[in-house]
Amino acid sequence: MLEKNLAVYPGSYDPLTNGHIDIIERGLKIFDKIIVAVLKNPAKTYLFSLEERQQILRSIFKDPQKIEIDHFEGLLVDYVNRKGINTVVRGLRAISDFEIEFQMAMMNRKIEPRIETIFFVPSDAYSFLSSKLVKEIYQLGGEVGSMVPQIVDLKLKEKFRQQK
Ligand code: ADP
User: What percent of the chain has pLDDT above 70?
Assistant: First the structure.
């Protein structure tokens, strides 16, 4: 039996930002439960290991009945099928996200027509925020504590202190 009120929110979360949290909170207005699925792509280099990325998420979201933290490797549709989920949640920031998100949603639909992708638009405070930008700022010695959870702020400072 497929669970109707369950959705998966896949992503790299390298690291988690307040933009991701905003999308998860909006998602919970519609879905009973969201599985935050952290992607492990062996072809990609991450700043935070899979374990670190999941640990950060687990320290923020403590109710597994509502928000479950998981990970996956390979095709999202395979993961979604394994879990028996109908819906994929993604975030749409400024126009730049549209093309790639549209391509991905269409491709996933081609492989598995059953799956629907639902997009949430973040608060405008986060519409220009990305994990990539956050990493660049900390790497250059800056900080954006209002854009990431406190644990991420601390961990980013730690990472870049270690690298110096
Ligand atoms: P991916 O590598 O899958 O893009 P990300 O962790 O960068 O992984 O993003 C996961 C999802 O969250 C994507 O749908 C992305 O558009 C969305 N997202 C990331 N940052 C924000 C933000 N600031 N506001 C809204 N959505 C966001």
Answer: 96
| Helix (H) / strand (E) containing 120 | strand 116-120
The pLDDT value given to residue 95 = 79
**Whether residue 71 lies in the annotated active site:** no
- Rounded to the nearest angstrom, the distance between the alpha carbon of 90 and the centre of ligand 1 is 7
Q: What's the confidence (pLDDT) of residue 161?
A: 87
- What is the overall mean pLDDT for the chain? 94
Q: pTM here?
A: 0.95
Residues 6 or more apart from 32 whose CB is under 8 A from it? 5, 6, 66
Cα of 11 vs centre of ligand 1, distance in Å, is: 6
For domain 6-163, the CATH architecture is: 3-Layer(aba) Sandwich (3.40)
Which is nearest to 88 in space by CA: 69, 63, 114, 64? Answer: 114
Domain boundaries, the chain: 6-163
12 lines ligand 1 (CB under 6 A): yes
Q: Which of 8, 17, 23, 119 to mutate to test the pocket of ligand 1 (most atoms within 8 A of CB)?
A: 23
- Distance separating alpha carbons of residues 34 and 66, to the nearest angstrom: 6
Residue 47, both tokens: 């700043």
